[in-house]
Every structure is written in structure tokens, then in C-alpha cells.
Amino acid sequence: xxxxxxxCPYDCPDACGLLVTVEEGRAQRVAGDPxxxxxxxxxxxKMAHYERTVHNPRRLTTPMKRxxxxxxxxxxxxxxxxxxxxxxxxWKEIIATEGAEAILPYSYAGTxxxxxxxxxxxxxxxLGASELDRTIxxxxxxxxxxxxxxxxxxxxxxxxxxxxxxxLWSIHMMATDIxxxxxxxxxxxxxxKIWCIDTYRHQTADYADHFVSIRxxxxxxxxxxxxxxxxxxxxxDEGFLQKYVLGFEELxxxxxxxxxxxxxxxxxxxxxxxxxxxxxxxxxxxxxxxxLGSGQSRYRNGAMTSRLITCLPAFVGAWGKRxxxxxxxxxxxxxxxxxxxxxxxxxxxxxxxxxxxxxxxxLTRDSSIKSLFVYSSNPACTAPDQNKVIEGLARDDLFTVVxxxxxxxxARYADILLPATTSLEHDDAYYSYGNYTLQCGWKCILxxxxxxxxWELACRLAKAMDIDDAFYDQSARELAEKLIASTEKxxxxxxLELLRSGRPAPLPLPENYNRTFATKSGKIEIHNDALRPAxxxxxxxxxxxxxxxLVNAPDMRILDSSFNERDELTRGHVMELWIHPEDAExxxxxxxxxxxCSNERGEAAFTARLTDRTAPGRLVTEGVWWRxxxxxxxxxxxxxxQRLTDEAAGSTFxxxxxxxxxx
Length: 663
Ligand SMILES: Nc1nc2c(c(=O)[nH]1)N[C@H]1C(S)=C(S)[C@@H](COP(=O)(O)OP(=O)(O)OC[C@H]3O[C@@H](n4cnc5c(=O)[nH]c(N)nc54)[C@H](O)[C@@H]3O)O[C@H]1N2
Ligand SMILES: Nc1nc2c(c(=O)[nH]1)N[C@H]1C(S)=C(S)[C@@H](COP(=O)(O)OP(=O)(O)OC[C@H]3O[C@@H](n4cnc5c(=O)[nH]c(N)nc54)[C@H](O)[C@@H]3O)O[C@H]1N2
Ligand code: SF4
Ligand SMILES: [Mo]
Fold this sequence. Notes:
Layout lengths: L1 E6 L9 E7 L2 E7 L18 H4 L9 E3 L8 E3 L2 H19 L4 E5 L6 H5 L2 H7 L3 E3 L5 H11 L15 E5 L3 H4 L3 H10 L3 E6 L4 H5 L2 E4 L5 H14 L5 H7 E2 L1 H8 L5 H8 L3 H13 L3 E5 L9 H9 L1 H4 L9 E3 L11 H4 L10 E3 L3 H6 L6 E5 L3 H4 L3 H8 L5 E6 L11 E4 L8 E4 L5 E5 L12 H11 L11 H15 L5 H5 L4 E2 L17 E2 L22 E6 L22 E4 L1 H6 L7 E6 L2 E9 L7 E5 L34 E6 L1
Parallel strand pairs: 6-15, 7-14, 8-9, 8-12, 9-10, 11-21, 12-13, 15-16, 16-17, 22-26, 23-25
Antiparallel strand pairs: 1-2, 2-3, 4-5, 4-17, 18-19, 19-20, 22-27, 24-25, 24-27
The chain binds ligand MGD (2 copies), iron/sulfur cluster and molybdenum atom.
The site of one ligand MGD has 31 residues, from strand 16.
């Protein structure tokens, strides 16, 4: 029996340190690493039994070829040699007749490891394939932050321990960032008050001292309402503003007067007294801390909303104060020189770009995409406008290859399905986007079945496509060594030996990182000349048809569609719709009955749950479920749209209106 340090590979801000106990070649037990500066020895319910994913009887173990209709999941095993040679033959034919842009890779963050995540980028660049813009998560949030703060490093989460007022703003901490709770607990013991600003009352709201229930997509107005009150009450930090901030006088003169409490209350649905208490709590705190989640940014005004919220800490001078600041995403991704893996020097300028939020449109608009290569992602389930995505995947003339660990909704449409390793079976280097830690995960068990890592697959495909380049003679471990060495340039003082040993390595944040503003002017830019508009202002959402807003939030038990393979995690509470009792009464809906939500894109069936955890006019559903887990064929994404955010071309998953029917 041996215990190995490892890293949680999932798309979660915590990037936990794991301790994996291996016995007779199998992972037997997985625990949280007590020495990891953010994990601190605990794990979420999903990863506490990661071995049940790794050794799941549903793991794909051999390459397979489709034998039934697309979508049926009927497949027969073939050898790796046959699989690779069929893919190469088809691609060569497509390239010869249609050009390489007829091939499109589609991937996201099934694994966050820098090597496996980007392993195939170089291959597709080199082939001249169409490029995918990876925008499905929350690029608008990052954009809004950068519009004001440039490349300034967001506040480290542990800083919040010293805050006396913490806003959990559109983040379901108890589901999506549970280890931040360690820090919030410490602050709370020292007397901090915790506020949760969200569209419905979930466990994070229960945990907080105060819950502010907001109408979806109106947080920009709330931020301006808070600033209006701070200004009126003389709670701004004039010294800080004068010294460090551009454009606050203009905002004060031409924008804030439009947002008095009664107007903001009407826009946001937040009662005036609540708005006032929220603003005063923020303005009177010694060192207020905002943890900003992505929810508020998944709307057509998402970048502007994030930009407005980012103005708050500047007004009260929270930056640089012990315990104060704002955390969107820790920018640790820039710790490694990812070009070592991605090979951007192989990119072909001018090739077609496809926004992944619009994969449905790209596959159905015309038939110019002839082959789709999906890995580390499950678009049939997680991409918006599911009917369009499925229509595209069902195309007979589309040659689809999927590299996966399980028979997902997308894998069911594969012509060739290839088995992928889990993080315990391959080497990789990880960063976290929720805290400032790096760690490497070295393989500690043999691959399950004949599965190959993304990197090994890239090497085999490159060879079959006649790309003869020494780049593909390297092992993932060799790439990892180069990545490790590259961190020193960006983070002088990082402990490279610790990183090599597979233990968590904290990034040495420069002193004053939080008071040195990495913008063009060197100041916080409320006014930003490079932008239109140069001064931020609230953008109301366009009115859509539909009586109800539908918020679809993360479920604690799964992560996007990952962990749907685990029967014990997906039992019960799937595709539930939270309806306020007043709405239910009006529509004669009973607890537990089947109801339907519909809009111009499609319809989905849910089980009704009557609860005042949501507000009238607002419906909530948690989780993105595989089709086999749900009542009818359609999951939540049949209702979401391919529309993009105002800036950064991001997803707008929560910007949905629907009709609700009792049936
Ligand atoms: N258990 C679990 N963990 C996860 C995930 C998961 O699916 N399950 N997903 C992972 C991924 S990929 C990501 S990107 C992160 C996301 O982590 P978060 O940022 O926490 O999650 P979001 O999905 O953005 O939603 C956060 C909250 O925003 C709320 N919200 C929606 N619209 C609005 C609004 O207009 N205003 C306000 N104030 N709140 C709003 C939702 O109700 C939800 O509670 O979590 C990661 N971790
Ligand atoms: N309605 C709605 N839809 C959403 C969201 C929402 O809140 N609401 N959230 C959105 C967000 S924030 C995100 S980030 C996206 C994520 O959406 P996806 O990118 O589809 O993420 P997952 O559903 O986690 O699927 C990842 C897949 O990668 C596979 N995988 C894991 N490791 C590896 C590996 O090493 N190699 C290969 N080849 N495969 C691997 C897993 O088995 C899994 O099936 O979903 C989005 N979709
Ligand atoms: S909290 Fe997030 S990073 Fe930590 S083990 Fe769970 S999924 Fe992984
Ligand atoms: Mo995400």
C-alpha cells in the first residue's frame, strides 16, 4: 500500500491537493491533502470517492466503432491501430477534397491539467483545421475585471480571513468553491458579516448572515445603487480615489445620479431597506472583500455587469487593505508558459474560428464542417441550444471522433470512440483559478484498459497524419519538466523542487501585489479610454417573451456534466424545478408533478418543487444531467441560447425566459 500526492483535475476553482492510496494497482482511497494551503485536508462529496470514477465499471476500455444509428451508442470494439488509421484516412480525404478547415476540434476543461488540456492544440494548428474559441465558461467576467483593473492580480482568497465584511456575489460557494469556506469561517469567528447576493436561496445563502435576492441579470444596477448610496453618505475613500483611480468624478456626475435607491429597487427587485443595509455594510467595513462568481456574467450584459461590480472596491479603497479586495479568478494560469504545449507558432492566420457557444449553429448552418473531434467535453449535454447541437451531431455526413472516459451523450454520436485516461493514469501540471497554488500530478496507477491520455493520442495522430516532428517524441513528463522550469521567470522565488516532487507549491505573491495596478495608466480605470463606452453604465437586458426567468445553477453532486457516471451521486433530485408557491397556485401546479418549460428553442420536463427559496416569476433548476438520468430526452440546455455576452463572446446560460406549463 502506497500513498501518492495528486491534484484534482476538474474545472473547479479549488484545484485541491489529493492523497491517493494505491493498493495492488488500484486507487483505494482518496483524501484531501492537509498540507495544501487551500484544501486543508477536506474534499467535496464528488472527489471524496474519486476511486469510484477511476475504477467505474462504465469506464471505456477500448477504441470502438459505431454500428447503430448516431445517438444510439451502439458500438463495437476495434484495435487502436485500426482506429487511428481510419481517422487518418478520413482526415486526409477531407483535407484533399474540402481543405483542412473542414475539420473542427471541440474541447474544454474535462481536465484542467496544462498538458492534457492543450495536448491537441498543436496538432490541429499544424493541420490548418478550424479553430475553436473556448468561451463557454465565463470570459465576460474576466473581461469586466480587466476593463477596470487590467492585469492586476485579484486578491488571494486567504486574505478574506482578515475581512470584516464578505460579499459572496453570485457564487454558490457551498457547491463550487467549498474550500473558501475555511477562510470565511475564520473571518466570521473574528466578527465578519457574510452577505450572499444571488437569484435564489441555496445552501450558500443559508450559510450567510444576510441574503439579498436579486432579479437575474440586474447586478450592474445593484452595483450602481450601492455606489450611489456610498457617495451620498460620504463613505467613499477620497484619498484613495484621488491617488489611484481614474474617472470616479465623471461616474459621480453623469452616471450615479441615475441610480437612486427607489429606481435601483425597481430594477433589481431588491427592497430599498435591503439595498441601503447592503451599501452601508460595505461602505462602513474596514476591509470589505468581494468573492465574485460567474453567475452574474452569463447574460447579454455580463461583461458590463462585471465591470461595474469591479468598481466597488476602488470607491472604498479596499485594494491593498489587509482583508479587503476582490477575487474573480486567481490569475495563476499565467504561471506556466503554455506555449510549450500549445505550439502557437503552428497556427495559420486567417483560418475559420468557431465560437464553442455556437457549435449548434456551426454544425447545422451548412455542411462545411465535415469532421468534429471532441475531447475533454460533452457538448451534447453542456452546450447551449441542445436541439441544434444534437441536430448537428446527428448529421450523417459528419465524421465524429470522441475521446472520452465514459459513454456520454456526445460519445453516443461518435463514429469512432476512443478511451481516455483519468488524472491518476497520466502526468500533468496544474494551476488553480481560485487560489495561488501550483502542483503537478504524477501518474500513480496504470491506464485502465487500453485508455490513452490526450497527449499520447496527439502523438499517435500526429504520426498517422505524417507530421514528423521531434515535438511528438517527448513524454508528458518531459513537457511537465519544461513547464515547471518556465514558472521561475514569471514567479521568481517559487519552490521548483516542491513542484517537481508533486507537492503543492504556493505562488510567492509580490508584496503590495494588491496595490500595484497593472493597467495602462497605472491607476484603476473606472474611465477607460480604450473602451466603448469609456465610462461604465448599466445595460438593461433586452425583453424576451416568456413569463418566467429560468436560472440553472450548479449542483453540488456533479460538476457540469462530469460525475454523471456515478449512480450514487445522481440518485434523486434530478431535473427538479423550483417554483414559488404563489406561481404554483396560479398555475395549479402540485408538488412532485411533472411540469414543462418551453421557449422558442424547445421544451424540457421537470419535477415541480414548490418552495419560497425562489421568488415569484423566477424558476430555478440545478445541474446539467445526462439524458439517461432524466425523464424525457431533453435536458436544461434545450432552453438555453447561443446568444453571446456584450463583450468577450461568452456564454449566456442564465439569460433565459420560458413559459411554464402544468403537464
Ligand atoms: N459542484 C459543482 N462545482 C462546480 C461546478 C458544478 O457544476 N458543480 N461547475 C464548475 C465550473 S465549470 C464553474 S465555471 C464554476 C462556477 O462557479 P460559480 O461562479 O459559483 O457558479 P455559477 O454557475 O456561475 O453560478 C453561481 C451562482 O450565480 C447565481 N446567479 C445566476 N444568475 C445571477 C444573477 O443574475 N445575479 C446574481 N447575483 N447571481 C446569479 C446562481 O444562482 C448561482 O447560485 O464552478 C465549478 N465548480
Ligand atoms: N445549462 C447550463 N449549461 C452549462 C453550465 C451551466 O451552468 N448551465 N455550465 C457551463 C460551464 S461553466 C462549463 S465550463 C461547461 C463545461 O462543459 P464540458 O466542457 O462539457 O464539461 P463536462 O460536462 O465536465 O465534461 C467534460 C468531459 O471530459 C471528459 N474528460 C475528463 N478528463 C478527460 C481527459 O483527460 N481526456 C479526455 N479526452 N476527456 C476527459 C469527462 O469524462 C467529461 O465527460 O458547461 C457549461 N454548460
Ligand atoms: S472541491 Fe473542486 S478541486 Fe476540490 S476536490 Fe472537489 S472538485 Fe476537486
Ligand atoms: Mo465553467
